[in-house]
Design brief:
The complex is a heterodimer of chains A (459) and B (329).
Chain A lengths: L5 H16 L4 H16 L5 H22 L4 H26 L17 H16 L9 H8 L2 H4 L7 H4 L11 H34 L6 H32 L17 H5 L4 H15 L6 H19 L3 H19 L13 H22 L3 H11 L12 H16 L14 H18 L14
Chain B lengths: L1 H41 L6 H5 L3 H27 L3 E6 L10 H17 L3 E3 L2 H4 L8 E2 L3 E4 L1 H16 L25 E4 L7 E4 L18 E6 L2 H4 L9 H8 L3 E5 L7 H10 L8 E6 L2 H4 L3 H7 L10 H11 L1
Parallel strand pairs in B: 1-2, 1-9, 7-8, 7-9
Antiparallel strand pairs in B: 3-4, 5-6
The chains are: A mainly alpha (459), B alpha/beta (329).
Chain lengths: 459, 329
């Protein structure tokens, strides 16, 4: 059930007051939350609920057994991980490994791509954190199921880190007027980015990528840059809405983005892009591999490993593998050339603006792999991009590009705040008109066809 | 001062009369739209292929009636084109071939050919060469859609070129001093990116005259004009303008102007009304109707009410109503 639909509005409007009526009883709230999660997740395919309950049961039992039988903890942990990733493998990678034409095991019909990559990582986080003794195994199955299937973040994250986030589901939740205002800010801004900006970009991007063989090279460059904006507006729009909705339910989910397109170096970009996945990869891949290690080579190897895993997480094909590797390579090159910078430095000079553009173009170029249906199409696209012949100014998607620049500009101006739309420190006479302008903007630019597809749903 | 008052009075009277007239037109148009909507509610569109697929006597009678309607409209169109000293041609054109060939296109071709023969309209079938091709599916957008692909549009243009060449010397006699702003039904100067819900994004541009072309036409004709009237097959959905069959023909015939007034869902009654209301003012020398078997079934009233460009509701004939109630109630 996508957020930008009337169904979701009705669903949330019914659930929200009931949820807060049970404010004093966190167990009851979790029960209601699980019920809502199942309605939300099973809206189109009820069998999906069975799968997520099965996964929750697996990690719940596994965690308790690991605590009760410490001598067997490693064996139990290994089995849980194998089972956990087996269903992810069946769903996402089986056909890639064994081909489309091979017979499929029965279990494959019970798996789904919807949300699986996200809640598998959430489940992995829980069982690993218990195994590493970063948190205790919880007896409260309903709380665990509420954590695993929490509907604002179920379909496309942000991905939780169990030892940091799970405690919220056991504690009493609160909601203040400030929380509500902050939540509404994010939902409005997210809706603007998704329903307005990303929608404006979707059609020209589809058009350029589909017709790349017959369009001038300048259109292909424009298509790549527009796609970069589209992915960001689509995914960060969803993440902002998820953050706001979770906040309205008294849960703080992780940030997913922090103005990535104002990054001046590659490492800074990845400190601003898909933060919850980066945090997960850091916690469970990068640090176990040794982090920065003893020398630059180990550091580079670990970075490459993280990006390859990230590519494979996005999808099972050579395109995602190459996309991950290309980004890893960019990161490694920036380390080798010393093009890195400290995270707290927020002052910009002329050289920095060149950096912003260079990083944006470099990151965007890797996305041809990400967007193309197969390797040959991606290679043809790259080939056509360098087939320079004359100059034709692209004349599609101008409104989308303009709106994207507007968003990036707001993010730049607001870069010292927690979020681009974080204006809580401003007086009411500034905030109210800002919200009104945003509402009018969303209403005015609302697309004729409201796209309820999200790019990151398929991962 | 008196003169000033008089002119104000005249202006007010003119405005009131004009306003009254436009209000009346608007009221009529609203009433027509409501009547059409009501009829569509009463008779939602039904699958029209059954009419030709079923062999019972009622279906046969209805089909014959549709065929007669088709022929009558074609005859009127021929008269209208002739009245302007232009020449009407009918070209049978469909991407259906082999297993995908529907019954209506199988039997419809012969019927349209017979109608043309009876009405002395030159008829050309450009599907025969395609049927002999080893893999004609490349001419379509299959599996996503059955309309022409780029290769298909090229095939159409290549097949049409020698036909058009035969009419090099044809010149229409009629000229019009007063002309409407548009000669086609598309939104003038449109430039839209769309995928039509099929995942086949394309860019549709129209010229100032509301025709699917990349350049505007001069009010006064300086070159021979070839006007195409057709349904979606000739509109070439899912292709950018430069790849449509008519644009390719334009490239082959720079000494002519190739006008494309085709549109989704149109049939012969639409061609007739479009020609009379707008397209004839293009003063085309040759008018080519792109026909296929569906055009006959398209005459069924419930389909017409959904797709026709006409604003008035099309009521069912006695036979059509009988058929509708027997088969679908």
């Amino acid at each position: 059930m996508p957020f930008n639909t009337l169904y979701f509005l009705y669903f949330f409007a019914c659930f929200f007051p009931v949820y807060w009526l049970a404010k004093k009883y966190s167990n009851l709230q979790n029960g209601l939350l699980v019920l809502a999660n199942m309605v939300f997740y099973g809206w189109t395919e009820p069998k999906l609920c069975g799968l997520i309950v099965a996964v929750a049961l697996l990690i719940w039992l596994g965690a308790i057994l690991m605590e009760r039988l410490p001598g067997l903890a490693m064996t139990i942990y290994a089995w849980v991980i194998v089972l956990l990733f087996y269903q992810l493998f069946l769903c996402k990678y089986y056909k890639w490994f064994f081909g489309e034409d091979q017979g499929h095991p029965f279990w494959i019909s019970l798996t789904t791509t919807v949300g699986i990559s996200y809640y598998t990582l959430a489940a992995y986080s829980y069982i690993t954190d218990v195994y590493r003794k970063k948190m205790l195994a919880r007896r409260n199955f309903v709380a665990l199921l509420a954590y695993l299937s929490f509907f604002p973040q179920l379909l496309a994250g942000p991905i939780p880190i169990a030892h940091q986030d799970f405690a919220q589901y056991l504690a009493q939740r609160h909601l203040t007027w400030t929380d509500i205002e902050q939540a509404i800010q994010r939902i409005l801004w997210g809706l603007f980015k998704k329903a307005v900006v990303a929608s404006q970009l979707a059609i020209p991007v589809d058009y350029i990528f589909y017709n790349h063989a017959s369009l001038p090279y300048t259109y292909l460059w424009a298509g790549v840059l527009m796609y970069s904006f589209q992915v960001y507006m689509d995914f960060s729009g969803y993440s902002d809405m998820a953050w706001g909705l979770a906040r309205l339910l008294g849960i703080k989910v992780n940030y997913n983005f922090n103005a990535p397109f104002i990054a001046r170096t590659i490492d800074e970009f990845w400190r601003r892009w898909h933060l919850s996945l980066s945090a997960w990869l850091k916690e469970y891949i990068y640090i176990p591999l040794g982090g920065r290690g003893k020398n630059r080579w180990q550091y580079s190897f670990n970075i490459m490993a993280v990006f390859v895993v990230s590519g494979l997480w996005h999808g099972a094909n050579s395109n995602f593998l190459l996309w991950g590797s290309a980004n890893g390579l960019l990161f490694v090159l920036s380390i080798i050339w010393g093009l890195t910078r400290k995270s707290k430095d927020l002052s910009y000079n002329l050289k920095d603006y060149t950096g912003v553009i260079t990083v944006f173009v470099a990151i965007s170029l890797t996305r041809v792999f990400f967007r193309s249906p197969d390797l040959m199409t991606a290679l043809h696209y790259y080939q056509a991009m360098v087939a320079v012949k004359g100059f034709v100014l692209p004349d599609v998607g101008l409104l989308g590009i303009g709106l994207s620049w507007f968003v990036v500009l707001v993010e730049f101006i607001q870069r010292r705040q927690l979020h681009a739309i974080d204006i809580l420190n401003r007086p009411l006479y500034v905030r109210i008109p800002t919200y009104l302008v945003l509402c009018v903007g969303v209403y005015y630019f609302w697309p004729v066809i409201n796209s309820t597809e999200y790019i990151y749903f398929k991962f | 001062m008196k003169k000033f008052h008089l002119s104000v009075l005249i202006a007010l009277v003119v405005c009131a009369c004009g306003g009254g007239e436009s209000q009346q037109q608007s009221a009529e148009s609203t009433a027509d739209a409501q009547a059409k909507e009501a009829l569509q509610m009463q008779y939602p569109e039904i699958p029209r292929d059954e009419i030709v697929n079923d062999t019972d006597s009622l279906s046969t009678k209805v089909f014959r009636e549709l065929q007669e309607k088709y022929k009558a409209n074609l005859a009127k169109l021929n008269e209208a084109v002739k009245a302007n000293g232009a020449t009407l041609l009918v070209v049978f054109i469909t991407p259906e071939v082999g297993n995908s060939l529907t019954k209506i296109n199988r039997v419809g071709k012969g019927m349209i050919a017979d109608d043309c023969q009876a009405l002395h309209i030159p008829f050309y079938d450009i599907t025969t060469k395609m049927a002999a091709m080893p893999n004609p599916v490349v001419l379509t957008q299959m599996p996503k859609d059955g309309h022409w692909s780029k290769e298909g549009a090229k095939y159409v243009a290549d097949e049409l070129a020698p036909i058009i060449k035969q009419y090099d010397s044809v010149k229409a006699t009629a000229t019009f001093q007063q002309k409407p702003e548009t000669w086609g039904d598309l939104q003038p100067n449109a430039d839209e990116l769309t995928d039509g819900g099929k995942g086949l994004p394309y860019r549709m541009k129209s010229n100032a005259q509301g025709l699917r072309m990349d350049y505007d036409l001069a009010p006064t004709k300086t070159k021979q004009r070839i006007l195409f009237l057709g349904d979606s097959e000739m509109y070439f959905p899912f292709l950018d303008n430069p790849f449509t069959g008519t644009a390719l023909l334009q490239g082959m015939f720079p000494e002519k102007e190739i006008l494309n007034a085709s549109n989704w869902g149109y049939s012969v009654d639409d061609y007739l009304s479009l020609y009379n209301e707008k397209a004839k003012y293009a003063e085309a020398d040759v008018v080519i109707v792109a026909a296929n078997g569906n055009d006959i079934l398209d005459m069924f009233f419930s389909h017409r009410n959904r797709f026709t460009r006409g604003k008035k509701a099309i009521k069912p004939s006695i036979l059509e109503e009988q058929y509708y109630k027997t088969k679908f109630h």
